[in-house]
């Protein structure tokens, strides 16, 4: 799992810049993406994938740990990777077997 701090460090190493500047740029970029997703309901990033908010009916489910009933929200974010990433993931699964 990559964290925002690690991604900013990789950017600063690649572009010979200040890590704090790259942290701010990354944070702002993610904020802009989140705002666009909330406003438009869909973000398409070429050669990466599509993020979209899908609306589902609210339904009651059991929490797997506590066994309490809780409601699943009506909106969920769905990510569909592009064909390039999908083929890379499939190749990675084959290599790991």
Please give a structural write-up.
- The protein has 97 residues and is of the alpha+beta class.
- Helix content is 48%, strand content 27%.
- It has a 3-stranded antiparallel beta sheet with strand order 1-2-5.
- β1 and β2 (49-55) form a beta hairpin.
- α1 (4-14) packs across α2 (19-40).
- The mean pLDDT is 89.
Features:
97 residues; alpha+beta; three-stranded antiparallel β-sheet; two-stranded antiparallel sheet
Number of strands: 5
Return the average pLDDT rounded to an integer. Answer: 89
Approximate strand percentage:
25-35%
* Widest sheet: strand ordering: 1-2-5
Low-confidence runs (pLDDT<50, min 5 residues)?
A: none
Rg over alpha carbons: 18 Å
Write the layout of secondary structure elements.
Elements: H1 4-14, H2 19-40, E1 42-45, E2 49-55, E3 59-62, E4 69-72, E5 75-81, H3 83-96
Antiparallel strand pairs: 1-2, 2-5, 3-4
Helix pairs in contact: 1-2
Q: What is the structure about, briefly put?
A:
With 97 residues, the chain is of the alpha+beta class.
């Amino acid at each position: 799992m990559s964290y925002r701090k690690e991604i900013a460090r990789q950017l600063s190493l690649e572009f010979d810049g200040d890590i704090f500047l790259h942290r701010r740029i990354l944070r702002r970029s993610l904020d802009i993406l989140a705002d666009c997703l909330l406003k438009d309901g869909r973000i398409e990033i070429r050669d990466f994938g599509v993020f979209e908010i899908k609306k589902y009916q609210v339904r009651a489910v059991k929490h797997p740990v506590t066994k309490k009933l809780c409601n699943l929200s009506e909106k969920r974010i769905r990510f569909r990777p592009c064909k390039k990433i999908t083929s890379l993931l499939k190749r990675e699964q084959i290599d790991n077997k």
